[in-house]
Design a protein that fits this description.
single chain; 73 residues; mainly alpha; 89% helix; membrane
């Protein structure tokens, strides 16, 4: 039972770290792209938000899956 909780906490921690890291990278990349593409006015905020959330979700998913695979060993 202790092993399951340990494995579950490792997966949750991996997902959280992946989400935080992906969000930071997504915010930087989204800001750069919004400026480079010349996104008008308040649409920049929407564009940056979309790239931030998308990057956080994808990177969190992959880091969580990697933690799950690593936990099975």
């Amino acid at each position: 039972m202790a092993r399951e909780n340990s494995c579950l906490s490792r997966i949750a921690a991996g997902t959280a770290i992946g989400g935080a890291l992906g969000g930071a990278v997504g915010a930087v990349h989204g800001t750069y792209q919004a400026i480079r593409l010349g996104v008008p006015g308040l649409m920049k905020i929407r564009y940056i938000g979309q790239t931030t959330i998308g990057s956080a979700a994808i990177f969190g998913l992959f880091l969580g899956a990697g933690s799950l695979i690593h936990c099975g060993k």
